[in-house]
Task: structure prediction
Amino acid sequence: MTSSTSAAPEASGPGRAGAAPPIPLPPPPLKGAQLILGTLALSLATFMNVLDSSIANVAIPAISGDVGVSPSQGTWVITSFGVANAISVPLTGWLTQRFGAVRLFTMSVLLFVLTSWLCGFASSLEMLVFFRVLQGLVAGPMIPLSQTLLLASYPPAMAGTALALWGVTTLVAPVVGPLLGGWITDNISWPWIFYINVPVGLLSAMMTWSIYRSRETPTRKLPIDTVGLSLLVLWVGALQLMLDKGKELDWFASNEIIAFAVIAVVAFAVFVVWEVTDAHPVVDLRLFRRRNFAAGSIALSIAYGLFFGNVVLLPLWLQQWLGYTSTTAGMALAPVGIFAIVLTPLVGRKVGSWDPRKMATGAFIVFALVLWMRSRFTVETDFSHILIPTLIQGAAMAFFFIPLTTITLSGLTPDRIPAAAGLSNFVRITAGAMGTSIATTLWENRAAMHHAHLTELLVQGQGTFAITVKQLEAAGMSAEQAYAQINRLIDQQAFTRAADDIFLASSFLFLSLIILIWFTKRPVPHAGGADAAAGAH
Result:
């Protein structure tokens, strides 16, 4: 959780000279209909935010075709949102203390609605990416603040129940997202995957403001690290542009890519020096001195980058080379949430008493198994065999986020947890965007290599190649059409083998990350897992 709940004790107010300002009492828990409606309002906003990160995955081929770009360029729609979202997450604490949690949350939801509406109106890739960047920026405070307000709505003894309700919302969205996105893309048009946020967001904002405006958190003016924030935007933006445009511009044969690389490296180096010496850093890099935080957040981030890159790659392969529609691709991705929904409450209860290192190790082994199963896919693999690994992956997801977050945040004092959760989420979300760029770039590179290997023994006018051409011509095709059909079949095989390569490499990387988990110390066992679950998202 990345909101600064520590703002409350710091409220500004009149007091005697030399005396500390009075500490306001927190508002009492909500009751009855207000509690139900408040939970619903916050859950709707969370659902909308999480849904938006998965609903576009199956629509990428349709969006790419409509705006006249390749599907690999179309993935910028996903990565631009992720990078902007990652940059804004660490600012949640400062913004909360400056404007108040309720006001900031409501503004974020309304701005998310506006930017969603603008995304639907985009007529070019450049416009769509620009509006997705804005959408990611305004979305940053929504998820952490929804947790903050939800926990304040329930009695402390029911914190676990509150987080379980919230957690189910975040797990249902990845199930609904691909299904809904696929159906909308096939039956209406892709802009509606953004337009549906408008009524949901307006309803959430209206309900939130009517219920929570009298429960606003205290505010105060704090300095903001403008230099650190500028450097953060600069190096993350330059690095993501380098990854997104590298394939298109032939990597370091391009002066533009070299420039992006130099900017990213220099800005990152200056950023690190500035953040470890500034009194009010935008991200507290000193947290990496702690073994659990460093190993835990790195393992979580690399694993999330692998996971998210493969989640984007699978529907691209299904739609481009196996002939799946957006709807059927969504159906192939949807079961991932079934085991996650069933098992997450168990993980939340047991993470305090079981060893979270063992739980995370089990998750990584299951992820490795799932990706190994996918590395066996061929162009003849049927829908049911594609569905099975997706179903199993849900179990890994349940044992992934909460245990690793527990490890990462363990041993920190309460006043440092918001900063630590913000930094951990920043690194994780950035890794997810970069994982998408790397996975799609490697996929195309490996496909080109496999295409070359598959064609090197084919000689025009001879052997199997000549026989196949004659058969296609006999079926009514011209010579050019026959060559195009053969090339399409070779591409289908090449991109399938390339996808298998990515899946297999990701499987081995998940296994290697287990070593990193065991560099951490086991958190002190305790009775419940609510506190750990609070930071999981």
Notes: The chain has three domains: 1-10+25-224, 225-281, 285-537. Residues 285-537 form a domain with the Growth Hormone; Chain: A; fold (CATH 1.20.1250.20). Residues 417-455 form the longest helix (39 residues).
